[in-house]
Write a structure and sequence with these properties.
The structure is a homodimer. Chain A is an alpha/beta fold. The first copy, chain A, has 3 domains: about 150 residues, NAD(P)-binding Rossmann-like Domain (Rossmann fold, 3-Layer(aba) Sandwich); about 170 residues, Dihydrodipicolinate Reductase, domain 2, CATH 3.30.360; about 90 residues, ACT domain (Alpha-Beta Plaits, 2-Layer Sandwich). The first copy, chain A, is about 35% helix and about 25% strand. The first copy, chain A, contains 15 helices and 18 strands. In chain A, strands 7, 8, 9, 10, 11, 12, 13, 14, 15, 16, 17 and 18 form a 12-stranded mixed beta sheet that branches. In chain A, strands 3-2-1-4-5-6 form a 6-stranded parallel beta sheet, with helices on both faces. Chain A is elongated, with a radius of gyration of 24 Å. The N and C termini of chain A lie far apart (about 60 Å). About 0% of the residues of chain A have low confidence. Chains A and B meet through helix 2, helix 6, strand 12 and helix 12 of A and helix 2, helix 6, strand 12 and helix 12 of B.
């Protein structure tokens, strides 16, 4: 029988993730001790209400409402409560006491990561956060360590399971956004207030974390361009599908370096975009997540898996806990977060991509010519024009007076495309610009 | 200007990978120094022939044929020569001198990993090997660290680009094995002697490395069950495709624990298998690699990317080099390889899966009944029977006397299936058992 030293671990939060972390620590104590070389002693779980029902159950003697005291007795603190406060205060206290911290809190890191990482570095503690992005999918460690000798040029992620479920459902069975959202809510994929998911706030936080890590730079969350999926209609998804694309909410972080245009920095953005069906990201179905990484040497990589869920997120938390524990046992370094690059955050107008524009136009001669001229006037090259299958209210044929026009462009500057769209809206023959979506991965 | 300390790095091997590693170290010296906190000083590149042409070029003053002297002056040794000797001798010397080692050498690790890891642990040095499996795809670190608090139950990998290219080609354009192999050779995906790839030796080495890491146990390479793809005909691929499957050469490592049958251990095996088209591995095209991991908490994960290539493998080597360098700068632990589990290696007869069996049978009444009886006699439940599209020499219809019969089974024990096949071959009405392939991921 090997005698191990003990590591004192405090758990903050007893929700689904916390309950799964506690269960695994208890059920797999011996196996974890063998892997770490120390016994991991769960000294307590701080919760708001010790009487609440939990699944899986947490032994009652571990529950406490006194997080502060719990933290002060711990070697390692795991924070899975979510939200900014009191998580920020607790993590700060834990780091100041010299404890290492494992967190799954994307909102906190996206908003206050710089301050927390600086504090950790100052006191010589470590802050682990694999669970904060894309649940159980290992993406933080690969970006931080595996690609540390390479240069990442671009990241495209499906990092929000709720919106991927909704868009996939709309694509698969022709549901409307509202119908698909209702199913997502019923299945527990969407919250009662779905704003954080469908309007892209959650994805923007994850994009900021990934971009900071990939480009070794500090990312200001307020500079992340963000568009949600409320404006994506079933019609647009059907038109995209017909053209060989899936529509996905993408979190994109891109290194842009184009001296001719004075562009040198990082673009971080979240928006629904068209992806070719042949692209690996197009095959990410349901509530799954995936992160597609392009690097100079490594080429294209993809990391795929469940983006959320109690056991899945707990798996990522426990991986970090083992890393933190090994550090306590053997000593030595942890993350070495370095934000030495200090790159500029670029506005979305700095990007270049191709576009899928849907217009409602008068069904009369000469319309196409005038529409085409607007594109040409702004140096946006048109690759493809198609009469749409449907209008918003039914088939074009049945209406007689308007038709749907779908235009695919070659790569163009976002600023040129924006000017094009503004001028299209002014054309008398254009009833409305129904949809403008970017095409990525083509 | 920051003054960094220097780390002395020796590179063994000046082939495609070595030349790419050297190029990156030279071109990105400043960026790497900022990431590591030390200047990485490439002190020399040991090669067999200093006059050979290299792409990209390596500065002549760095080249040497004296590997032994180079090693003794290094803090970190990178081995990208491949092969067992002299790589084994050099790595042993490097570790004994106290240097950390980064290697891309799967053959060496699969055959002598236990001895080399033990030496590294004894002397307190580290042995990094992300590049040894699946090129640039980060899979070692996720298995070792990210999933360290979880239990991996199964790994299925497409880890050999050459065979995936050949099978994909046969699937896509109906090439025969020989035609597809010829194209692979022409494009540089296959070696002049393709044995290591097409007979599964390369995949078996990678399977052994992955299994050892995932299950914390020592894997004996000679216990890895291995079948190559020479026996996979165009006909079988067409039949599989018609039934909704792709044929892939899979490296599988599986934890089997079935007390009722006295089965408790690890099965490591390489064989061509059918994968449902809807499975993420089925979408891995061309010479790409992917590793699909199932774990208790994390659920299903997939890691995808280029499996080989100079810049890609160099990217993985450099990631390890940065890790090793950070360890030198900050001090502390590295890998903590632990093989504490000590699980039994199980023979392939211990597995349970479903099967796709193709028979050439007499085209006469009663054949199906006698074939079905053989399956039933061995408790193998038949899910599906189809008359095949083709026989080996042409359509069944044109031959008149024999027909192709395709049988899909439910999950069955490999030992029962083997007995079934043996008895099928004895049936007078069965001309031949054309193909027996396992179905995975269904």
């Amino acid at each position: 029988m090997i005698e191990y030293r003990s590591l004192r671990v405090a758990l903050l939060g007893g929700g689904t993730v916390g309950a799964n972390v506690a269960r695994r620590l208890i059920d797999h104590a011996d196996e974890l001790a063998a892997r770490v070389g120390a016994h991991i002693d769960l000294i307590g779980v701080a919760v708001r209400d010790v009487k609440a029902t939990r699944s899986p159950a947490i032994p009652a003697h571990l529950l406490t409402t006194d997080a502060e005291s719990l933290i002060l007795g711990a070697d390692i603190v795991i924070e899975v409560m979510g939200g900014i406060e009191p998580a920020r205060t607790y993590i700060t206290a834990a780091l100041q006491s010299g404890a290492d911290v494992v967190t799954a809190n994307k909102a906190l890191l996206a908003n206050h990561g710089t301050e927390l990482f600086a504090l950790a570095e100052r006191v010589g503690a470590q802050l682990y956060y694999e669970a904060a992005v894309a649940g159980a999918i290992p993406i933080i460690r690969p970006l931080r360590d595996s690609l540390a000798g390479d240069n990442v040029t671009r990241i495209m992620g499906i990092v929000n399971g709720t919106t991927n479920f909704i868009l996939d459902r709309m694509d698969t069975d022709g549901s409307t956004f509202d119908e698909a959202l209702a199913v997502a809510t019923e299945l527990g994929y969407a919250e009662a207030d779905p704003t954080a998911d469908v309007d892209g706030f959650d994805a923007a936080q994850k994009a900021a974390i990934l971009a900071g890590l990939a480009f070794h730079t500090t990312i200001d969350l307020s500079s992340v361009h963000r568009e949600g999926i409320r404006g994506v209609s079933g019609e647009v998804i059907a038109l995209a599908s017909k053209a060989g694309y899936a529509v996905k909410l993408l979190a994109i972080a891109e290194r842009l370096d184009n001296p001719a245009d004075g562009i040198d920095g990082v673009s971080v953005r979240v928006y629904p975009a068209l992806i070719p069906r042949t692209h690996p990201l197009a095959a990410v179905r349901g509530a799954n997540n995936a992160v597609f990484v392009e690097a100079e040497g490594a080429g294209s990589l993809m990391f795929y898996g469940a983006g959320a869920g109690g056991p899945e997120t707990a798996s990522a938390v426990l991986g970090d806990l083992v890393s933190a524990s090994r550090r306590h046992v053997i000593g030595g370094p942890g993350l070495a977060e370095s934000t030495h690059a200090n790159l500029a955050m670029l506005p979305v107008s700095a990007i270049t991509t191709s576009y899928h524009v849907t217009l409602e136009v008068a069904d009369e001669p000469g319309v196409l010519a005038s529409v085409a001229k607007v594109f040409a006037d702004h140096s946006v090259s048109v690759e493809l024009v198609e009469q749409g299958l449907f209008t918003s209210e039914g088939s074009a044929a049945s209406k007689g007076q308007t038709a749907t026009l779908v235009i695919g462009t070659h790569r163009a500057k976002e600023s040129d495309l924006a000017a094009t769209v503004a001028d299209l809206a002014k054309l008398k023959a254009v009833t409305s610009v129904t949809s403008v979506l970017r095409i990525e991965g083509a």
